[in-house]
Design goal:
With 148 residues, the protein is α/β, with parallel strands linked by helices. The chain contains 3 helices and 8 strands; from the N terminus they run E-E-E-H-E-E-H-E-H-E-E. Strands 3-1-5-4-7-8 form a 6-stranded mixed beta sheet, with helices on both faces. A two-stranded antiparallel sheet has the order 2-6.
Amino acid sequence: MAAVVASAAGALFLDELGRVLLVEPTYKPGWEIPGGAIEPGETPSAACAREVQEELGLSVHVGRLLVVDWAPHPKGERLLFVFDGGLLGTRTVQSIRLQAEELASYRFVPPGEIGEWLPLRLNRRVTAAVAAKSDGTIHYLEHAEPSA
């Protein structure tokens, strides 16, 4: 059995219209939510806040946990966390400063359209995060699928 070798934490940010913030990495194709790898000795919420600061230039309080997703990987299983990043008002959005080495751009996408922008597993994870934010729960997933 492979050990958990990597974990990552991301933030679900919504704008004033309820759209989800997606970012476009420079180092791989596609889109994702802000966040990244958890460093050794770092908590998931601290990693999330650090990654948001590094990638977007925003110093934010990371809110409650929305999703935990166990994911298989050839090099070992992963635990993926999504936290509530909160609402980004117009002034905060205008203050976003992308880290050019990691992010090319960002956009806000209506929740019903995120599947057009994200890979299937990430789409399911982010959709679960939107639902958890709305219903006040934490969603536990296995390979981006709800666990019974």
